[in-house]
Amino acid sequence: MSIAYLPEHAENALLALELAEKEVAHLAYTHRTLFAQPIDLLWVQALEQREDLAEKVDAFVSRFGRLQDHIGEKLIPRFIALLGSTPQSLLDNLAYAEKTGWMENTESFVSARKLRNLLVHEYMAEAELFLESLLAADDATRMLMDIVARIKQQAQTLGLDTPR
């Protein structure tokens, strides 16, 4: 009989997955409400006068970054340990995640990380660059949510259930 995972890592992996699912739910709400409206250059330029929209953007950027950090720093490394490997650097862990099918490709995750930095730093400086970044974050959000869904599927395949 072979063990599919290391039981001593199950609790930490499942806790990281549970937190990721909560973060996905919060990001999904903000994403849905933000991108329900047409976003163009005029919309971005109006952010200075529209505190309600600016606050929505801030919430989106914050949740986007938080989920991304959690996936890279906690979720993937804990599932790597669960499967009996040793977590390495972020890029090595992302390569492992790509190899296991948890993500389509490492470059997308790294690009989303750069995107987050643009969303934070170009907010009020360059409207056109901010618009491009915000629209790219729309797709990147789906990619991050997909990673969590794939890792959840991995947990289910292993016979693990997230705590309630």
Which features would summarize this protein structure in a list?
single chain, 164 residues, mainly alpha, elongated
Describe this structure in words.
The chain has 164 residues and is mainly alpha-helical. It has one domain (8-157). The protein has helices spanning 10-34, 41-45, 51-82, 90-100, 106-121, 127-157. The chain is elongated and about 60 Å long.
Count of DSSP-assigned helices = 6
Overall, the morphology is elongated
Number of strands: 0
Proportion of residues in helical segments: over 70%
Estimated structural class: mainly alpha
What is the helix/strand order?
HHHHHH
Radius of gyration: 17 Å
Strand percent estimate: under 5%
SSE layout and pairing:
Layout lengths: L9 H25 L6 H5 L5 H32 L7 H11 L5 H16 L5 H31 L7
Helix pairs in contact: 1-3, 1-6, 3-4, 3-5, 3-6, 5-6
Q: What does this entry show, briefly?
A:
This protein is mostly helical and 164 residues long.
